[in-house]
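User: Ribonuclease D. Structure?
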Amino acid sequence: MITITRTEDLALFCENAKAAPYVTVDTEFLRERTYWSKLCLIQLALPPASTPKAAGGEAVLVDPLAEGLSLEPLYDLFRHQGTVKVFHAARQDLEIFFHDAALFPQPLFDTQVAAMVCGFGEQVGYETLVRKIARANLDKSSRFTDWSRRPLSDAQKAYALADVTHLRVIYEFLSAELRKNDRESWLAEEIAVLEDPETYITRPEEAWLKVRTRTNSPRFLAILRELARFREAYAQERDIPRSRVFKDDAMIEVASTKPATEADLGRSRLLLREARKGDIANGILAAVKAGVDSKDLPQAKAEEPGKPGNAALSDLLRVLLKAKADAAGVAPKLIASAAELDAIAQGERDLPALRGWRAEVFGQDALRLAAGEIALSAKGGSVRVVPVP
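Assistant: Predicted structure:
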């Protein structure tokens, strides 16, 4: 188990990797005490016997915490179009590389997404694919390791390497299945979302949209917007978790009570002690005032009145989705969410479920069902689409 700690060794491995058809990649990181993920370990593996021992062997660990190590050779490999970069559930890994180096590994293959396209269920875990495809079992004893601590034990290293060595078998199987079923374009549509910078950008002015609240008063929402904006910017600038500034329940409380002084903050039931004074307290009070004085009041999305047949149509769309997903061997959630089905029933048409490969599998018939052009017929355990005369 070789751990790379020098830039020249990483460069040698990556140069050899450029001659390989693919490289499997995983990371270990910490995020409990920071806003941005702290990269602690990188695992890389090449197809068996694809690189000489002088390059570090087929699978290596890279220690990004090693003094003097530059990751530029790895980023150069990520830019190399001749080698596919294979991840499982890549989103968090990609967020790290996007934030640290402003790049995405390309070409990219995500085995979790590919597995859903190939009918392995929704959000299928790596352990499940290792068992079903690689016919192996994972040692989970090091799952909750603090990856920032050094030295790493042999057990920790073995656990980390298993995340990329079994991934080779999984990738080769799934890529063959995609080719056989002519679904490579389906995967490409999903990968495009993972490679979109907008997927990983959180703008402070939009942070309030992710806060769940039952209050729809425009003034309350304006204060909430300003509080969420302050919290997001403060957490990003200082690289601390949002919850270290104040939690959602405290933000909702403050938006409701509208404190004007530090003494008012001191009466809060939910604010952390650190948030009742100093920079955070000043930021809270300024945000409350900005929300109170704002003339740009956000409007909560009005709930559409129920339309005749909407609830029934939503139920029918769920039946249709299940039937279509079963027939295509695809996880239903990958095609459409429950919210999208309800939106189709309410008349919305600008939805992912109605575009691309999803339209071919489900969306076109969903629109025909909504328009009354087809009906559903149950026979035994199957559901069929029946044209309406």
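Residues 303-309 have pLDDT under 50 and may be disordered. Residues 154-180 form the longest helix (27 residues).
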